[in-house]
Amino acid sequence: MRKFFITGLTFLVSLIEFGGYSQTVANEQIQAPKVEMEQLLVVGLRESVTVWLKSGSSLTGRLAGFNQQELIISDKDFFESIPLNKINRLEFSGDVYTIDSDGRRRRIRGEDNNTEETEIWQGLPLTAFQVQSSSNDGKLNIETIFSEQEIEEIKSIAIDSLYVVDEIEFDSSGQKMTIKTIVVDR
């Protein structure tokens, strides 16, 4: 009987060890390989943008599109594509809306921006900024712009807050821009 007990105990311990091994192997198989992805920061865009042209004139509307060559603004009466090389700066005004986790459009803030922290990001390549016209926000590829330490700081702030674009100024080369943002609580 004692030999049977020791043999049974040895078998049970072997099963437990084998089970642990198979669990480890199964967990390793389940884990997906890590893929390097762009780190995109969602930034809020106010309802209205004034486009200041190098000629001194301006147009006001909603920012509907943006790429390396042009931006598109629209309003009730017009839809206009403007080459970036003709633009000096963009000034944003009005309320900021975002889509919450339930898919509903939610107002974040109005005109008064006296209490928010200002961030100015200089020398950003035009390729780093995208406009999401359906949700009236933008995305900024922070991976190619900031150091790891700066990215971690930005991401930690973005957990509870939203970076809202206040102004974009284009440099004379037409390849870089400066974005002035304010940080507002969600």
Task: Characterise this structure.
With 186 residues, the chain is α+β, with helices and mostly antiparallel strands. It folds into two domains: 1-33; 40-185, no CATH class. Helices cover 22% and strands 48% of the residues. The protein is built from two helices and eleven strands. The protein has helices at residues 2-30, 148-158; strands at residues 40-53, 58-66, 70-74, 79-83, 87-99, 105-109, 117-125, 129-132, 137-141, 161-170, 176-185. Strands 1, 2, 3, 4, 5, 6, 7, 8, 9, 10 and 11 form an eleven-stranded mixed beta sheet that branches. Strand 10 (161-170) and strand 11 form a beta hairpin. The protein is globular and about 40 Å long. The N and C termini lie far apart (70 Å). The relative contact order is 0.18. Residues 1-36 have low confidence and may be disordered.
